[in-house]
Design brief:
Elements lengths: L4 H21 L4 H18 L5 H21 L2 E4 L12 E4 L23 H8 L6 H4 L7 H9 L11 E6 L7 H4 L4 E6 L4 E5 L5 H20 L5 H37 L1
Antiparallel strand pairs: 1-2, 3-4, 4-5
Helix pairs in contact: 1-2, 1-3, 6-9
């Protein structure tokens, strides 16, 4: 059974609709725009090989729905450049088009009982790592002094050797024969969470085993204490130092400007 001419004309119309919708939605993002248009081009070529009219019509309907969804429900955001002296929080500018479907429920902007999940923890959950529901509801303190106090009171995870699956493989990279011809690369698998780490930082197998366990413990700390782990508190400490440095430099600059004004006034 061949596809009638009106249906093929409708297919061309849907293709043009998808092409325009992608241009509106992904304007300013050439890689995504190019990838999407290559995808619809491949799908359109495959569509011409369909002989069943019902399947052909269903594909046309799906194409129209995708074009409509692109225009109304997909928005892109651009991260704005931070000015000197501003806070470290990232700011994004959302690009809203005339077709974007806007809701009137303001409560979506301030949802209750929700804490933003760190990016690393989201990745672990996608891989099937189970995280305690009580951990998800813990709010991370905003200020460094509060974070430091909460960090000291956190529950540090314990590494049980029975939960580990350890293997040794031949090393690679620079270091000579003591690296490339010995099995000093330590591979650790934490069976409850399926987290896998490897270590080949030194030529000593004994030291690499210690370092691998330390790395694994840090990863478990990130999962058990989101925002309060050892690595997160070190990052917050660095940001706090930078904030204080900028504040001190701003005060010094203001004092210098006041001194110049006073000298000019006295003259």
């Amino acid at each position: 059974m061949s596809i009638s001419s009106p249906l093929r004309a409708a297919a061309r119309s849907v293709y043009r609709d998808l092409w325009r919708a992608s241009g509106t939605t992904f304007a300013g993002d050439p890689p995504i725009l190019l990838a999407f248009r290559q995808k619809i081009r491949r799908d359109s070529l495959e569509q011409y090989s369909v002989a069943d009219e019902e399947v052909f019509k269903n594909n046309l309907k799906l194409g129209r729905e995708i074009a409509d969804f692109l225009r109304k429900n997909i928005v892109q955001a651009e991260r704005l450049q931070m000015q000197p002296g501003e806070e470290t929080a990232e700011t994004y500018k959302i690009r809203i088009t005339e077709h974007t479907e806007l809701g009137d429920n303001d409560t979506i902007k301030t949802p209750e009982n929700m804490v933003e999940m760190p990016r690393r923890r989201r990745g672990k959950e996608e891989k099937g790592v189970t995280v305690d529901s009580e951990v998800q509801s813990v709010a991370v303190p905003r200020f460094y002094s509060q974070m430091k106090k909460a960090h000291k009171e956190r529950v540090i995870p314990v590494l049980n050797e029975n939960d580990l699956e350890e293997s040794f493989v031949r090393g690679s990279g620079p270091g000579g024969q003591s690296i490339n011809k010995t099995e000093n690369n330590v591979q650790l698998l934490h069976k409850p969470t399926r987290i896998r780490v490897s270590c080949q930082e030194t030529r000593s197998l004994k030291q690499n085993r210690k370092i691998a366990r330390r790395i694994l413990l840090d990863k478990l700390d990130d999962i058990s204490n989101p925002g309060l782990s050892k690595r997160e508190i070190q990052k917050a400490k660095h940001l706090e130092r930078e904030r204080r440095r900028r504040k001190k430099a701003k005060k010094a600059r203001l004092r210098a400007e006041e001194a110049v004004v006073n000298v000019s006034g006295s003259e």
